[in-house]
Specification:
The protein is globular. The protein is mainly alpha-helical. The protein has 16 helices and four strands. Helix 10 links the parallel strand 1 and strand 2.
């Protein structure tokens, strides 16, 4: 993944972009949020961060969702912590931003622990059975069908499939060693075995929770592998799982935009990849899942069992069980 460049030498942004401790995903996410706020207020982040009493109310007015407010405040905190030197006025501003973050976190956790969807989530969520129904009706080989296949035929991931290289492998996926994986330069890739009767393997090393989860490696089910082969046969050769019109991989932000556009067109609702994850988990009968099964499912979706619990709603228009 490439690094963001800014024409404005904003010290706050540069501190984030140059921090080796942050993943590329975190750098891009923080920088995008901060640059958007800086553009709207026409001030560099290094100055905005020093005005918490003015900027925090602006954030709450600008963004109605508590989760979005928290995300923006988190980005400002990431920038402020990397500004040097940390003078007295910096420490005072930091304390105010930290308090705002704690308050927003408390509000967010209160809603999550109630297992209730927000109004925005209610507007966008779609029953998982409907997602599968729409996927099945789409033309085989189409990008839209491939997208839904990757988010329904395996436990749906986050927006982590924007830059997945397609590699031809001489053997079956099951024989790919860790040494083979280590030699691949691309962080995220999909290995297609020469024998088309064998399943593909997906390897992710760059994703939101990679620092804690490590390398994510899964052998794909054969139905999903066949969906990919059908897509590849329907189009000119390509090097990436999903590509822009120019044949290049998406950035994380543009992939998210493309996915939202596709989902809106297919379902007529502001459905997102995150809401697909909610919908998937809410379609399951949790009374039939053992603790081990729940832990494995959380690992498959690259989050903790605690996060998994917050994805489950006790009411809302997405909740259903297969066959009901």
């Amino acid at each position: 993944m490439g690094h963001l460049a800014t024409t404005n030498p904003d010290k706050a942004l540069q501190g984030i972009l140059q921090d080796p401790a942050l993943s590329d995903n975190s750098k891009h996410t923080y920088a995008q949020r901060l640059m958007a706020m800086s553009a709207k207020l026409k001030q560099p982040i290094s100055e905005l961060a020093m005005q918490p009493m003015t900027i925090i109310p602006w954030i709450k007015k600008q963004y109605t969702e508590v989760a979005t407010q928290k995300n923006v405040v988190t980005a400002v905190l990431a920038a402020l912590r990397r500004m040097s030197p940390m003078k007295q006025q910096h420490r005072q501003a930091l304390a105010i931003w930290l308090q705002a973050s704690k308050e927003l976190e408390a509000q967010q956790q209160a809603r999550l622990k109630a297992n209730e969807p927000s109004a925005r989530q209610q507007r966008g969520c779609v029953d998982f059975r409907e997602v599968i129904k729409v996927r099945t009706a789409l033309a085989k080989g189409s990008r839209q069908r491939l997208l839904l296949a990757f988010y329904t035929m395996i436990p749906p991931l986050r927006c982590d499939l924007n830059r997945v290289a397609l590699l031809q492998c001489p053997a079956s996926a099951a024989t790919i060693s860790q040494d083979d994986v280590d030699t691949v330069q691309e962080n995220n890739f999909l290995c297609l075995p020469a024998d088309r009767k064998k399943p593909a393997i997906l390897v992710l090393r760059e994703f939101k929770t990679a620092n804690s989860a490590g390398i994510w490696r899964r052998t794909l089910p054969m139905n999903l592998t066949q969906e990919l082969w059908t897509s590849l046969q329907a189009e000119p050769p390509r090097r990436w799982l999903f590509t822009t019109k120019s044949g290049m991989p998406y950035t994380a932000k543009n992939f998210s935009k493309w996915c939202c556009s596709v989902l809106l067109k297919l379902f007529g609702r502001p459905l997102t990849l995150t809401l697909l994850r909610h919908s998937y988990l809410n379609s399951m009968d949790w009374n039939k899942l053992t603790i081990a099964a729940r832990e494995n499912l959380a690992s498959d979706m690259c989050h903790s069992t605690e996060t998994q619990d917050t994805y489950r709603w006790i009411s809302g228009n997405c909740i259903s069980r297969p066959g009901k």
